[in-house]
Amino acid sequence: MKQPPIDIPVRAPAATSADDTVLPFEIAALDLRGRVVRLGAAVDEILSGHDYPLPVAKLLGEAIALTVLLGTALKIDGRFILQTQTDGPVRMLVVDFRSPGTVRACARFDAARVAAAIEDNAASAGALLGHGHLAMTIDQGPDTNRYQGLVALDGGSLEDAAHEYFKSSEQIPTRVRLAVAEEMTPGGRYRWRAGGMLLQFLPKAPERMRQADLDPGDAPEGAPIHAVAEDDAWVEGRSLIATVEDVELIDPALSSERLVYRLFHERGVRVFKNVPVAAQCSCSRENVEGMLRSFSPEDRDYMVEDGAISVTCEFCNANYRFAPADVS
After folding, report:
1. What is the pLDDT of residues 180-236, one digit of tens each?
2. Hey, what long-range contacts does 161-166 have (CB within 8 A, 24 or more apart)?
């Protein structure tokens, strides 16, 4: 029996957009799905809580936006962790997203090398990251196996790394745009904003999901390499997201709905319920105390300074002090 068509409400896009939200959307006519993230207080709380040089803070803000885009797409309870490990001035970025919508993040860097890069006008994302790898980990808890995907970082940006990850690991045509900047408040204070958009081609028809064969390897020289032409729908979507400017992703006067309508209104775009996001660290005095108790008495003795053991959380800078007898 043929089902009646689903009545989808049609309305004008919202004029305003709430910060710290992710807006999922769909362009059914092109088999495209995507998400837009807008971060205000959440990213400002994380970045302002550390005395990072501006290029380092901007790079970590991009990593936060990317992680939130990917983490909120998961249909499971758990954690999505993005981590870089490289030989660049910023040797490590860690962003920990916990469903349904909390995030924390930190960076490790060589202050002298970062300062030199800034002085030489060579503080681009690719230059700061250098060469190494980016790991994306899904952790559903102690009773399940972790899933981890790796992608090489070869002097490119986080956008480049995300494109390569989806191409090689997920084999899903994907484009990502990320933007981070400071804005001045009416009171004269600067605060951080971040935004991002992810677009993926997810065709429902099997014939539109064709992939090129694997590299022929030891085939004779001159052997033809199998190639599949890009689908017109993906070419259109990829071309449209390439037109998005940084300011459009972080402008508080341009809502997420208006942005996706601006891009895809000719094909018709459907939006779904916003997903809220908040900055929240999972550290606590009880957790730190449990961690210290796991060390041997000899190891704890080495930690004592001025009669106490002091532990500072790298994510939120919270400091916890313990008398040695309290954790014995």
Report:
1. 999 888 887 889 999 999 999 998 876 566 665 556 666 677 666 656 667 899 999
2. 161/134, 162/66, 165/134, 165/136, 166/200
DSSP codes of every residue in 34-101: EEEEEESHHHHHHHHTS---HHHHHHHHHHHHHHHHHHTT--SSSEEEEEEEESSSS-EEEEEEETTT
Structure tokens at 123: 């503080």
CB 69 within 8 A of CB 198: yes
Q: What are the phi and psi torsion angles at 319 (to 5°)?
A: -110, 135
| Pairing, β 92-98 against β 102-108 | antiparallel
pTM: 0.88
Q: How distant is the alpha carbon of residue 45 from its chain centre?
A: 16
Token pair for 303: 């930690």
d(CA 299, CA 17): 51
Phi, psi for residue 110 in degrees, rounded to 5: -95, 110
> Which tens digits make up the pLDDT trace of 294-307?
999 888 889 999 88
Q: Is 181 in contact with 55 (CB distance < 8 Å)?
A: no
Tokens of 292: 């210290």
At residue 145, the pLDDT reads 80
In the block, tokens 């501006």 appear at: 54
Counting Cβ atoms within 10 Å, is residue 8 exposed (0-12), middle (13-18) or buried (19+)? exposed
**Of the candidates 91, 17, 11, which has an alpha carbon nearest to the alpha carbon of residue 254?**
17
Q: Tell me: the pLDDT tens digits for 73-87?
A: 888 788 999 999 999
Q: What are phi and psi of 281, to 5 degrees?
A: -90, 150
318 DSSP 8-state letter: -
- Whether residue 100 is preceded by a cis peptide bond, meaning omega within 30 degrees of 0, is yes
DSSP 8-class letter at 20: S
What domains appear along the chain, each with residue ranges and CATH number? 21-211+229-279 (3.55.30.10), 285-327 (3.90.1280.10)
| CA 43 – CA 58 distance, rounded (Å) | 10
Confidence band for 113, pLDDT divided at 50, 70 and 90: very high
